[in-house]
Amino acid sequence: MPSLKYSAMGVTLGLLVVFSASSALAHTGADHGGGFASGFTHPLLGPDHIIAMVAVGLWGVFLGAPAIWVLPIVFPLVMALGGVFGIIEVPLAGVEAGIALSAVVLGLCVALALKPPLWAAALIVGAFAIFHGYAHGTEMPAASNAVSYALGFVMATGLLHLFGIAFGNLARWPVGRFAVRAAGAFIALAGGVFLSGIA
Description:
With about 200 residues, the protein is an all-alpha fold. Helices cover about 75% and strands about 0% of the residues.
């Protein structure tokens, strides 16, 4: 069954990403090499980034077409704008809180299987994307090429969205739907932990 096969592959890829990030700290600002490499690894080294990106894909599945593709396009585009703001040091308050809150809100949207109009969902996703992009932009290594760096974090974000979509496809079965909504609850809870400052 092809869809099940792709879902399993997506889950495996996502788990590898999550476990590889478990020993790293979010937003370390560490230089991981060239522009593209630094940009690509930055979202993968932040657990708060990872769960919010996955939640976007999960929510897109619940919303169905065209949201399943619109949301994963809106997020990286707006995030890139946020990255530019960060690179040129446009003042923006509450970046870390905004990132953690994105996990709470997006996780709850998945857990509750909320289905607002597409424009409202895109507005929510886009608003939080600014904070994620800003964090990536402010932590761009000084020697990196901005375009390559941005391309890296946009591609990594897209892969995390795809993982969320792959996992979300399990929702076509009753047990899978429960698992996806449970994942949303877990993401919201984890976001709350980040927001509280415990982790």
